[in-house]
Amino acid sequence: xxxxxxxxxxxxxxxxxxxxxxxxxxxxxxxxxxxxxxxxxxxxxxxxxxxxxxxxxxxxxxxxxxxxxxxxxxxxxxxxxxxxxxxxxxxxxxxxxxxxxxxxxxxxxxxxxxxxxxxxxxxxxxxxxxx
Length: 131
Fold this sequence. Notes:
Layout (H helix, E strand, L loop, with lengths): L8 E3 L8 H15 L2 H7 E9 L4 E4 L1 H10 L5 E12 L2 E10 L4 E10 L8 E8 L1
Parallel strand pairs: 1-4, 2-7
Antiparallel strand pairs: 2-3, 4-5, 5-6, 6-7
């Protein structure tokens, strides 16, 4: 199932363009929400692990991650507002709010671990917190 044709509004704080890894975290977060498989394949290791802590769920490997995203019946996302993107070494985090078409707001924080500190390091692990 492809993502909705409605374009999701993206609100990003100013100053997020001063570190290349910050843009990667933003792009990857958007790719997960919009099921953009090519971007997911580009940025995630084949052995990526995604912990969805609220649901006590662990998704192992990139193909399972993509399949999970396709199988989930998602409400249409109107807006993704990002409050902060923080990067340091192999770690990064992003937080903000996801606003759904039905009026629901989901506060989120995703913590990323990359395979290395280089700009071309791939996403190795994600821990997702949702409220």
